[in-house]
Amino acid sequence: MTERSRRTTEADYDAAETDYVESRALVTAEAEGDERAVEAALRPRSLDEVIGQERVREQLSLVLEAARGRNRAPDHVLLSGPPGLGKTTLAMIIAAEMSSPLRLTSGPAITHAGDLAAILSGMNDGDVLFVDEIHRMSRPAEEMLYMAMEDFRVDVVIGKGPGATAIPLEIPPFTLVGATTRAGLLPSPLRDRFGFTAHLEFYEPADLDLIVRRSAGLLGVTLTDGGAGEIASRSRGTPRIANRLLRRVRDYAQVRADGTVTLEIAHRALDLYEVDQSGLDRLDRAVLDVLCRRFGGGPVGVSTLAVAVGEERETVEEVAEPFLVRSGLLARTPRGRVATPAAWQHLGLAVPSTAAFSGAQGVSAAEADLFTDD
Ligand SMILES: Nc1ncnc2c1ncn2[C@@H]1O[C@H](COP(=O)(O)OP(=O)(O)OP(=O)(O)O)[C@@H](O)[C@H]1O
């Protein structure tokens, strides 16, 4: 295991432990101004506390209950979906519901097969291993994982070339929970080894409303119906954003008003933070702006778009794009990303009669990338 991955794993593990061992340390966390700790304290702890995602919740509850009944580790679970929808939360809940320790790591931290072997060799019967961003694991580690998932065994290769020897290493039965924002990037041998796959969808405003109210309760924030609704409707279907906006609106209410989050206060605060009525933030608007004003509505490749807005391709692709597509403002086509008529209207621009969107067929991000040059 490399020093970097050891540090990542241990730090993550410590963070998970802290989440679970300590009670909801909101007061302390808040006093220390630690936003990450506040976020951790807002996480639902059991499936019953999870709001929305009914189908995933029901399916997962069945998988876990059956495993508990058989007194066996549940099948490996793959969670996919855009950031902030609750993948880490669900991984923690799986471990908690199985009363099993949780180990956390991430794909980018596993740079060598040896890193993975070191993690796996420290596992105990029934442990849950959470690998975030599993699509970013190195190829040799990925191949080692196939065998570990299926046979609970890995071959650790010692040495190089003709003198190399493979030492088999038995691993106690464990449950792998993989999370990915890009399920399409997972090679099918890996995808097929997950016994249960759940795709998390963006949340409906009514669910976000409940999430905002629950978090406000935990944070001790007084909030009116209008205030909750306004935050929910600007949260881009994402609980993490709902919680973040709630914290910013709370700051505004505390400093500029009497502390109560009303519709008016939420409205003013979110305008100040440049989150518009549809929940689009600066990056979303920058993507649409560049697409319409600089590239005439597209089609344009995602890498070009990312350079034009000064962001990483992954950020545009994984953070901005899914919400823009879902909002009907952007389409992925075989020739590149295209602004829809609604995007022009959203920016207050006239829809050009020659808009590239006419007749555009929406395709998945992976398909769109097959055709574009970036
Ligand atoms: N269903 C839910 N009900 C209530 N709160 C939720 C729910 N899902 C997520 N949250 C809240 O949203 C925050 C973000 O969730 P989480 O970290 O699990 O997302 P994620 O999908 O793992 O994101 P990333 O991929 O960026 O790590 C959590 O702190 C949690 O409080």
UniProtKB/TrEMBL annotation:
For this UniProt record, give its keywords in alphabetical order, as a comma-separated list.
ATP-binding, Cytoplasm, DNA damage, DNA recombination, DNA repair, DNA-binding, Helicase, Hydrolase, Nucleotide-binding
**Does the keyword field hold DNA damage?**
yes
Please state every residue range assigned to the domain named AAA+ ATPase. Answer: 73-204
The record's Pfam families line, in alphabetical order, gives: AAA_lid_4, RuvB_N, WHD_RuvB
Q: Where does DNA bind?
A: 313, 332, 337
- Could you tell me the superkingdom of the organism this chain comes from? Bacteria
Which EC numbers does the record give? 3.6.4.-
Localisation = Cytoplasm
Instruction: State where Mg(2+) binds.
Output: 88
Molecular function (GO) terms for this protein are: DNA helicase activity; hydrolase activity
Q: Which reaction does it catalyse?
A: ATP + H2O = ADP + phosphate + H(+)
Q: Which InterPro entries match?
A: AAA+_ATPase, AAA_lid_4, DNA_helicase_Holl-junc_RuvB, P-loop_NTPase, RuvB-like_N, RuvB_wg_C, WH-like_DNA-bd_sf, WH_DNA-bd_sf
**Where does this protein hold ATP?**
42-43, 84, 87-89, 150-152, 193, 203, 240
Record flagged with keyword DNA repair: yes
Describe the function of this protein.
Answer: The RuvA-RuvB-RuvC complex processes Holliday junction (HJ) DNA during genetic recombination and DNA repair, while the RuvA-RuvB complex plays an important role in the rescue of blocked DNA replication forks via replication fork reversal (RFR). RuvA specifically binds to HJ cruciform DNA, conferring on it an open structure. The RuvB hexamer acts as an ATP-dependent pump, pulling dsDNA into and through the RuvAB complex. RuvB forms 2 homohexamers on either side of HJ DNA bound by 1 or 2 RuvA tetramers; 4 subunits per hexamer contact DNA at a time.
HAMAP family listed in its UniProt record: DNA_HJ_migration_RuvB (MF_00016)
Query: What's the record's remark on domains?
Result: Has 3 domains, the large (RuvB-L) and small ATPase (RuvB-S) domains and the C-terminal head (RuvB-H) domain. The head domain binds DNA, while the ATPase domains jointly bind ATP, ADP or are empty depending on the state of the subunit in the translocation cycle. During a single DNA translocation step the structure of each domain remains the same, but their relative positions change.
Its family? Belongs to the RuvB family.
The name of this protein is Holliday junction branch migration complex subunit RuvB
